[in-house]
Every structure is written in structure tokens, then in C-alpha cells.
Design goal:
The chain starts with a helix and ends with a helix. The chain is globular and about 120 Å long. The strands form 17 sheets. The protein has a 17-stranded mixed β-sheet. A 7-stranded antiparallel β-sheet has the order 32-33-36-35-34-37-38, with no helix packed on it. A 7-stranded antiparallel β-sheet has the order 39-40-43-42-41-44-45, with no helix packed on it. Helix content is 8%, strand content 39%. The longest helix is centred in the N-terminal third of the chain and has 21 residues, at 2-22. Among the domains are: 326-464; 468-545, no CATH class; 548-636, Immunoglobulin-like (Sandwich); 644-717, Immunoglobulin-like (Sandwich), CATH 2.60.40; 749-773, no CATH class; 785-1018, Beta-galactosidase, Chain A, domain 5 (Distorted Sandwich), CATH 2.70.98. It contains 9 helices and 72 strands.
Length: 1079
């Protein structure tokens, strides 16, 4: 149908063009070459047009201008045709129409008359159409297409041909250089040998934008294959293929596409990607032709194989579909249409494709709507048209959650009856052609808005919509508040410049809407707003801005022993009384409000208040800022970060706000070791220890100008490796060896041989007790495991590190970002459970970019959370701080970016939370001996988790956690801890625990962690233990973290809730560049 529509459009344009010249034709005398050419055409195709200049130019079949033919349009409707008895054309005449731009020959399909069947019009043309742009020939009696024919049409733009040729080769499709061809349609129903479509020079393939081909597999000598390579079809936008064979046949199509329509024996592909300078994607579509599909034949089978399903965005299917891979793995598919398809009542997938937004079933005899699987929150539309087997709608199954969606029954459903229940008011509804007789008031309230409700029923006589609000006074924070009530509709995003630019965003349609209303001066206002601009009803209420949204504070010590706090607020109402009180409230330490500067245009303010220095004893101040309707707690800290020199651990670097007397700072490590200032600036201090500190985490205590700062586990002093090779963590590498030499003559080498079974048969112990592994084996576990080519699973719904071997799967998933106070208590949490993903491949590196979406908490509405997972089959070296990290081949690396996090106070920190299942009672067998495997291994000095080991069905996963991050570009201690464990619901083993693990991050403008996971394999075939089962190969997959655990890149800072778009875009681009640099 689509091809026919295109032909009608072009013909319509052509006829208008012809008509515009006919009115100027008049009595003209054609030049001899033009007249003889037209006479040959009239005689060859049996036209009844009289063969003189006046008759020719007066007909609708030819356009004459200044005694020349400028267009030929010989077809039914412009000429009559004879069936026999005509005068044959001259065999010596050639077509010579030097000024013709449009050349269309289309005799009646049922008329096979040719004046001289031995003559071929294509052999007559030669160079006779030098400026023709539109060239259509429909002559199924033509059996020869001359080689190089199209090189003689240098201005060719549109080509359509129906020929009776049996062979078509690439050299017959050659063009003249710079030919502007854009559309091609070939109807070759007798074709036995098909072209390879591989000519890369000047050809129809390299220039065409739309390519349509009709063929018949029943007459083909071989299976038909279309190799539509993007390197050849560089400009292809639309591909349409139709096989008219009534017999079984096979058509193979290799192409790159975004939109695909599969109609039994028709494959239509649109929007072909241009893949120059990029990796080429190929898709293989196999269409098994049974018989011509009709509305009464929904059982036609289609086998679809896609080698890269991620590029398919739309799929339309008639008949039964077998898809490889299954449809839920089409990660970018957003629209799926099934029509005339006998696939039963259920969905054609076991889980929703992650990007699917619209599902269409039409011309179907389904008896009910599917209720499982549950749709994603981004899915928004069901379309059920022309259903013959369903009478009532299972309304409850279409409300799987609080997400508003559209149910469209608007076409061909007179058999659907009943009433719509009140609880369905969460969804939009189209029911024009149904026999439904009653709907709730929520739909009548939106009768005039056809984006919400369509019906053929009239509005009930006397109906008046009466929405209600639960509260008559609305207090906004940052111009936002929730309206709750009934019949509130589906929101209003119209422009309302005279009413506070208000918008209404549905949270739960008809029940909860988020209101944005920009008030002017902070005073109470009485307003009346429309819930829907297409309806007359309104709601009225009193509104006032009461927000206290903090952005920054500066602290200044004045000479008179007064501390001045200069606060900046994004929102602050000066008409309300605000109290600034230092906590705890019982001490009654109020900060005296001296001055307020308010910006009426933007609603922001600066406020100054003073406190006597005698009321302060530390440099971290907890304030309660409150008005009558709102209160917020803020902490004014002494910001600090630090690191220990990696080569000289007596040298400590501190960074923060050290004020003007920075050189006089008093610094103590672990409550006893003095650190003398060597050099300093207002924002950095270098100091040296008076004695060596104990290895492990260390506290720091700083006093500057009488103000103090104290923090536990602030620095980390690393233990150096012992001579006998004991375990040490340094930067991004780890070496695991035997224990130190003991008495009795035992050497490190013999200890290594005994404890590791001589490196598990995959290496040897050296004199220092270290395993020197054979090539390809992992030194981190004394050669037990071997690097393998296992490919990790690409998860397009969440940034999860996943591996799967022999059906056993291990996931390490990111579940939340938490904000902690200085006591480690969670004060805010953002769940990371809804992502959009984009996959790119370049030079063997696979990158998956994730964007956290559907952030429902208004506090984080401007927070941007991005992640990137990279995988490469090649080893990589990546700079991380002052360390060069080597990433093994086939390794996963994760990066996480958080911007615009709004901290509750200025001393809180972040924690990234991951979840996995672990076995708390696990062993392996080696050399007929059971060996216990500890689930967690801790650093002896800092109690931070160093290793995680999980065994599942003889599959082992190891993870290693590095104990430092980069804080604003500087190495800083980071701790990995076990948060919580509960019995796993997904495992039948009682010792399997669902485990939450947290990685701590300081509060900083940029925090970076860098991880990778490497799959490893162990083959233990040296022992049979008298049991054949014990000699089977068992496998271990090991996640090795080199240089950091979470591969997290984080930019944090006090959030501005009303950011301009340009600012947010710049931040996105900057963070994406940082993430790219870490790959």
C-alpha cells in the first residue's frame, strides 16, 4: 500500500505539471525529430492519438513547448489504446527528445499489443533523453535492459520500471557521474538471477534514497538474498521489498534500519542509518513465504532474525512471528504493532522491551487483554482496534501501578459493551466506536479534550464538573506544592503568563497534581486556575511561598568577637518571620537577624545574622532556620579533605578553608601525633609527622583561630610489603602470597607449595613464597583461576555488572545513593531503579551510557545521575590519580556521575549502595579436599571490606575493593562496609543472603572511583577422588577490581533548584567528557 501511495503522489504532481503547459500549447508544429519520436511511441504502444503535431500537442499524453516535446505521459486516462491492427513503427527511428524532462510509458496492464514486438524502446533511446528527470516504463514484454543504459540519463531523478527481464546484474545499474537519482521502483516478476548490489562506484545503489523492488521467488533460480550494505547504499532512507509468489519461498535481507514493517512476504525498512566512519550493523530478516496474506489468514508465519536488535525502533507484523532474539531483547523498540495475527491473548514477549511505549493489536479475535508481564513505567499506550472476540474490558488488569496510560479502543469495536469503573480514572480513554454506555465523571470533566477522552456518547444533560481540593490554603516550597482532591484531571501544561506561569503535573491523575505557581512578593494570594484549558471549570485557593532553600553561607569572624553568618537562599519569603537558631534549641542560642536583601523577580535572598563567639566551641555549626510553615536544618562545617604522601608517609596534605592564620594551625593525628606545618595557603596545608603513625585509618584534629575540626578515619597509612611477601594493598594492585617464615627450617617457598598445592598446578612458588603463574593464569589467587573470553551481559535497564556462565548468573547492581550525617545515619536516599540506556561500539570498546529517569522526589528533580559501563576485548591502561591502572581484556568497568545533589547540610557525605546475593557457608573441593571460602575478607587495619567471594553451582565470583577515591583530584580514604543482610527470596539455599554493600564518598565537588570486573576460569582436572563426578571441570568467575571498586565519577554540590537549561546542558557535557576520559 505504501508504494501505491507514493506512485499516486508523484503522478498527481506530474499531471499538474503537464496541465500547466497544456494551456500554452496552442497550434504548434513539432520539429521533425520530436514528431518522428512521438509517432514511433504511438504506433509501438497502440495509442489512438492522431499522428499530427496539432493532435499530439492537444492530447493529455504529451506536453509541447515552443515546438518541442517537454513531457511524455502516455497511459490510460491520457490516451485510448487499440488491441490489434495498428501500423508498426519504423525500425530505423530512434527516440530523440532533447528537451523532454518527464517520460512516462504505461500501457494498460491487460493489453499486450505492441506494434512491433521485436523492437525494444530501451534500445531506441540512446542519448535521446539528455535532460529527463522522471523516467517510468511499464512494459513487461521488454526482456532486455541494455548494459550502461542509465549512464545515458545524466539528469535522472525518479525511476520506475516494470520489465520482463530474467537477469539483472550490477553493471546494468551503472549511472553517469553526479546523477541526482533519489527514488527507484523496479517490478521484475520474471527475474531469475538477482544482482549482488555490491557496486561501490557510480551506480543506482550509491545514490538512491528510496528503493522499492517487487519480485517472484517462484521463478528465481536460487534463494533470493538482498545484501543492502550501508557502505554501498550510502543515502538509502526507505527500502520496500515485496514477494508476490503464492508458493513457499525464502527471502533473506541484510540491512541496517530503524523502522521495519514485515507483511508476510513484504519487508519494509525505513530510515536507514548512515554508518560511515562507524562500526557497521547488520540485520538479517528471514521471511518464510506461505501464501498471499489476507485478513482471513492470520496464521501466516514470519521468522525474524536480527543480529543487532538494538537499532530496531518500530516493528509492524502481520501473521505469526518467531523472533530471534526474543522481542524483550529489542532494547530500543518503542512501537510494536501486530495485526491479522493469531498469537493468542497474551503479549508476544515474556517481559516488556525496556523502551516500548506503544503496543498495538488490531484485526484480532482475542477474547481478553493480557495482564502479565507488568509494563514498564515508561510504557504509555495500549491500542486495541477491530477486535472481534472480546465483549467486556478487564479494566483492573490495565491498572498495574499508578502510572497514567492511554487505552485506545477507538476503531472497529462495536462489540465491546459495559461501563467504565471509577478506579479506571487514572488512565486516558478512547471509546468512540464501542458500545460502552457509562463512564465516570472524571471523563465527562474532560469531554472537550480529545487527548484524554474520546467518545460518541453526548455529554449528559445538565452535567457540571465539580472538582474539589482537600486544602483551601496551599503553601509552596520553591513555587511547588501538591494539590490533592478529586476530579483534578490529568494536568495542565499551558502557558499562563498572567497567573504565575502555573503548570499542573499529574502524580496520580484526578487525585494528586504537582502545582508550579510563581507568586510575586511573598504575600498570600487568592487564585483561581483551570485544571484543563479546554474546559470551563476551575478551582480556587489561597497560595503563599514558604520555601527555605539554602544555597551557601559565608562565616566571618569580626574584631569584636562577633561571628557573622551571611546566608544565601534560592527561596526565602521576607514577609514571614524567620528564626536562625543554633542547635540544640535548649541552649537558646539565636542568631540575630540584622539584614535581608530580597530579589522580587527571582525570589532569592541574602540574610545576615550574628552570634557572639562565646556561644561557639567548634567549627561545625548546626542551625535550624524556621518560619511558621516550614523549617530546615543546615550545617555550616569546616570543610576538609586530605591524603598521605604515597612515597613518604610522614608527609600529610590537607585541603580546606584554613582562614588567614593558616600557618598557625594546630594539627594532631590519632589524638597524639603532632603534625608541624611546613607550608600553607588559605586552602591547603602541608605538614610533617613528629613520629610514625600506625598503619590503617587515622583521625585528624585541627584547630585554626580557636575553631576546631575533628574526623575519624580521615587519613589512611598504608603498610609496606614485608620481605617474605605478605599481602599488601598499594594503589591499584594486589599480591597475595604465603605467610612469613616460622621456626623449624620451613621456608616461604615450602610454605607456598604446601598452602597452594604448588600454585594449584598452574605455576610454581619462588624463594619469596610468591606464585609465579603460567601464562594466562591469575596471580591474585595463586594461579587458581585463568583469564577467559567470557563476555559480560549488557544490561540496558540498569548499570549492573553481570556475568553468566553455563546458566549461572551473577549480578552486582547499583540500587541507591544515600546521604549520611556525621553519625552515619541515613538522612536522604535516591533509589536508582529507572534508567534509559544508549549503546555504542567503537574500535572494540563497547560503551553503555545510562541516564537515571523518573526521579519522583521533588528534592532531586534537578539532580542528574549518569552512569557508563565499558567493556573491551583488549587490555587497557587508564590513569587514575597518580596510578596507571591496567585493565585486563574482557573486563567490565563502571562509571557513575551525580550532579546537582542537594545536601541537607554541609557536613554530610554520600554512600553508594550495591546489592548482590552471597553464600555465607561455601566450600570448594581441590585435590579431594574441602576448602572453606570466606564470603568477606577485611583489611586488618581499617575493617574495610577488601574481598567478596560468592560461589553458585561451582561458579565463583570474586570482587576486590580499593580503599581510596579521588576527592577533587586528590587521593582520599574511602571505606567499603557491609550495610545489611537478609535471607534471599530468590534462592532455595538458607545460607544465601541478599546483601547490601556501601562505598563511602566524601562531600566534594568531584569524587572519582574506578573499577573493573574480569571473568576468569579454573579447570581442576587433576583429581578423580574415586568418583567420576569429581573429575568434571568446574568453573570460577572472578571480578578483579583494579584501582577502585565502583568506577564512580561524581560531581556534587549544593543544588540550584531553578537551573537554566544552558547550565544543566553544560554540566551534562562536562561530566560525559569526564566519563569518556575514564574509559
Amino acid at each position: 500500500m505504501m508504494c501505491v501511495i507514493k506512485q499516486i503522489v508523484v503522478v498527481f504532481v506530474l499531471l499538474i505539471h503537464c496541465s500547466s503547459f497544456i494551456q500554452f500549447s496552442g497550434a504548434q508544429t513539432l520539429l521533425p525529430a520530436d514528431l518522428s519520436s512521438i509517432r514511433w511511441i504511438i504506433r509501438q504502444y497502440g495509442s489512438n492519438i492522431v499522428e499530427d503535431s496539432v493532435s499530439i500537442c492537444a492530447s493529455g499524453a504529451f506536453v509541447c513547448t515552443n515546438n518541442r516535446i517537454t513531457a511524455v505521459n502516455l497511459r490510460p486516462g491520457t490516451s485510448g489504446f487499440i488491441a490489434s491492427g495498428g501500423q508498426p513503427p519504423s525500425p530505423t527511428t530512434n527516440i530523440d527528445l532533447q528537451l523532454c524532462t518527464q517520460f512516462v510509458i504505461q500501457p494498460p496492464q491487460s493489453n499486450n499489443y505492441r506494434g512491433d514486438p521485436s523492437q525494444n524502446i530501451l534500445l531506441k533511446i540512446g542519448t535521446g533523453l539528455p535532460i529527463v528527470n522522471i523516467f517510468w516504463i511499464f512494459d513487461k514484454l521488454i526482456t532486455i535492459l541494455p548494459a550502461g543504459f542509465f549512464t545515458q540519463l545524466p539528469r535522472l531523478g525518479l525511476l520506475s520500471m516494470e520489465l520482463g527481464i530474467t537477469t539483472l546484474q550490477d553493471n546494468q545499474l551503472t549511472l553517469a557521474p553526479s546523477t541526482p537519482i533519489s527514488q527507484i521502483s523496479l517490478e521484475l516478476y520474471s527475474l531469475k538471477s538477482f544482482p549482488a548490489f555490491q557496486t561501490a562506484g557510480n551506480s543506482l545503489m550509491t545514490s538512491v534514497g528510496t528503493f522499492t523492488m517487487y519480485f517472484n521467488t517462484s521463478v528465481s533460480d536460487n534463494p533470493v538474498t538482498f545484501n543492502i550494505s550501508s557502505s554501498i547504499f550510502k543515502n538509502l532512507g526507505v527500502l520496500e521489498l515485496k514477494n508476490i509468489s503464492p508458493n513457499p519461498g525464502t527471502v533473506s535481507v541484510i540491512a541496517s534500519c530503524e523502522d521495519m514493517f514485515v507483511f508476510n512476504k513484504i519487508i519494509y525498512i525505513a530510515k536507514m542509518k548512515s554508518l560511515s566512519n562507524h562500526s557497521t550493523y547488520y540485520y538479517f530478516f528471514l521471511c518464510m513465504s506461505r501464501k498471499l496474506l489476507t485478513e482471513n489468514d492470520p496464521k501466516t508465519s514470519i521468522d525474524l532474525v536480527s543480529l543487532n536488535p538494538d537499532a530496531v525502533k518500530q516493528l509492524k507484523v502481520r501473521g505469526r512471528l518467531t523472533s530471534t532474539p526474543p522481542l524483550h531483547q529489542f532494547n530500543n523498540l518503542y512501537k510494536l504493532i501486530f495485526e491479522y495475527s493469531d498469537i493468542g491473548n497474551g503479549y508476544p514477549f515474556t517481559s516488556f522491551p525496556p523502551s516500548l511505549t506503544q503496543y498495538v493489536r488490531q484485526y484480532s479475535n482475542i477474547t481478553t487483554f493480557p495482564s502479565t508481564p507488568k509494563p514498564t513505567t515508561t510504557f504509555n499506550t495500549w491500542v486495541y482496534h477491530h477486535l472481534s472476540g472480546i465483549a467486556t474490558v478487564p479494566w483492573a488488569s490495565l491498572i498495574p501501578d499508578n502510572t497514567s496510560r492511554l487505552l485506545d479502543l477507538d476503531s472497529g469495536n462495536p462489540g465491546i459493551v459495559g461501563t467504565v469503573p471509577e478506579y479506571f480514572c487514572i488512565n486516558k480513554l478512547f471509546i468512540t466506536t464501542t458500545s460502552i454506555t457509562k463512564v465516570p465523571d472524571c471523563y465527562w470533566c474532560n469531554y472537550n479534550d480529545q487527548t484524554i477522552f474520546k467518545t460518541s456518547m453526548p455529554l449528559p444533560i445538565g452535567f457540571t464538573c465539580q472538582p474539589t481540593l482537600d486544602l483551601s490554603t496551599i503553601h509552596t516550597i520553591g513555587y511547588r506544592a501538591n494539590l490533592t482532591g478529586s476530579l483534578l484531571g490529568w494536568g495542565n501544561n499551558g502557558l499562563h503568563p498572567t497567573q504565575g506561569n502555573y503548570t499542573l503535573t499529574p502524580i496520580v491523575p484526578n487525585k494528586i497534581l504537582e502545582l508550579y505557581y510563581k507568586t510575586n512578593n511573598g504575600s498570600e494570594e487568592t487564585v483561581s486556575i483551570k485544571l484543563n484549558d479546554k474546559e470551563a471549570h476551575t478551582v480556587g485557593f489561597t497560595i503563599q511561598e514558604v520555601g527555605i532553600i539554602f544555597t551557601s553561607v559565608n562565616v566571618t569572624q569580626n574584631p569584636n568577637q562577633i561571628i557573622s553568618f551571611n546566608w544565601s537562599f534560592l527561596f526565602f519569603n521576607p514577609t514571614l518571620l524567620h528564626n536562625f537558631t543554633l542547635l540544640p534549641l535548649s541552649l537558646g542560642r539565636s542568631c540575630k537577624n540584622l539584614a535581608t536583601i530580597y530579589n522580587n523577580k527571582y525570589g532569592n535572598a541574602t540574610v545576615r545574622c550574628d552570634l557572639d563567639v562565646s556561644q561557639l566551641n567548634i567549627m561545625s555549626f548546626n542551625f535550624l532556620v524556621a518560619n511558621a510553615y516550614n523549617q530546615q536544618t543546615y550545617n555550616v562545617p569546616f570543610k576538609l579533605s586530605g591524603q598521605v604522601d604515597s612515597t613518604n608517609q610522614s608527609l600529610v596534605y590537607l585541603f580546606g578553608d584554613f582562614r588567614q592564620n593558616h600557618s598557625l594551625a594546630n594539627i594532631t593525628i590519632n589524638d597524639k601525633i603532632a603534625c608541624s606545618v611546613v607550608s600553607s595557603t588559605p586552602d591547603s596545608i602541608n605538614c610533617t609527622l613528629s613520629e610514625s603513625a600506625s598503619y590503617g585509618p587515622a583521625s585528624v584534629y585541627i584547630v585554626v583561630d580557636g575553631y576546631s575540626f575533628i574526623s575519624k578515619d580521615f587519613l589512611y597509612f598504608t603498610a609496606p610489603p614485608n620481605n617474605n611477601g605478605s599481602t599488601t594493598t598499594t594503589g591499584g594492585s594486589t599480591t597475595t602470597t604465603t605467610s612469613s617464615t616460622t621456626g623449624g627450617g620451613t621456608t616461604p617457598q615450602t610454605q607456598c607449595q604446601e598452602s597452594t598445592s604448588n600454585c594449584f598446578g598452574h605455576g610454581s612458588c619462588d624463594v619469596n613464597g610468591r606464585c609465579q603463574c603460567d601464562n594466562g593464569y591469575n596471580p591474585l589467587d595463586n594461579c587458581l583461576t585463568k583469564f577467559t573470553n567470557s563476555t559480560p551481559i549488557t544490561n540496558t535497564t540498569a548499570p549492573t555488572s553481570s556475568f553468566e556462565i553455563d546458566g549461572t548468573k551473577f549480578d552486582f547492581e547499583l540500587v541507591a545513593i544515600q546521604e549520611l550525617d556525621n553519625e552515619g545515619i541515613v538522612i536522604a536516599e535516591l533509589l536508582t531503579n529507572s534508567w534509559n540506556a544508549t549503546i555504542t561500539n567503537s574500535d572494540g570498546l563497547t560503551l553503555v551510557d545510562y541516564q537515571l529517569v523518573n526521579i519522583s522526589n521533588a528534592l532531586y528533580i534537578d539532580t542528574i545521575v549518569q552512569a557508563m559501563i565499558s567493556f573491551s576485548t583488549q587490555p587497557r591502561d587508564i590513569q587514575f590519580g597518580d596510578q596507571l591502572l591496567h585493565i585486563n581484556p574482557n573486563s567490565i568497568k563502571l562509571a557513575l556521575n551525580i550532579t546537582n545533589w542537594q545536601y541537607n547540610n554541609l557536613i554530610s557525605t554520600l554512600r553508594v549502595v550495591f546489592r548482590t546475593d552471597v553464600n555465607m557457608n561455601q566450600t570448594i573441593e581441590y585435590d579431594c579436599k574441602q576448602q572453606s571460602i570466606s564470603t568477606f575478607s577485611y583489611d586488618q587495619l581499617s575493617s574495610t571490606i577488601q574481598y567478596l567471594r560468592v560461589i553458585k553451582d561451582n561458579i565463583q565470583y570474586n570482587g576486590r575493593f580499593i580503599d581510596y577515591v579521588l576527592s577533587d583530584g586528590r587521593p582520599t580514604f574511602s571505606k567499603t562496609t557491609l550495610i545489611n543482610q537478609t535471607t534471599s527470596q530468590s534462592s532455595s539455599t538458607p545460607t544465601t543472603m541478599s546483601t547490601l554493600i556501601g562505598v563511602s564518598l566524601p562531600q566534594c565537588q568531584s569524587c572519582l572511583l574506578d573499577p573493573d570486573f574480569t571473568p576468569l576460569l579454573i579447570d581442576n582436572t587433576v583429581s578423580d577422588c574415586g568418583d567420576s563426578a569429581n573429575s568434571k571441570t568446574w568453573k570460577i568467575i572472578v571480578g578483579v577490581v583494579v584501582g577502585g571498586f565502583a568506577a564512580i565519577a561524581i560531581t556534587v554540590g549544593a543544588v540550584m533548584l531553578l537551573k537554566k537549561n544552558v547550565t544543566v546542558n553544560k554540566q551534562k557535557k562536562a561530566m560525559q567528557q569526564k566519563l569518556q576520559n575514564m574509559q
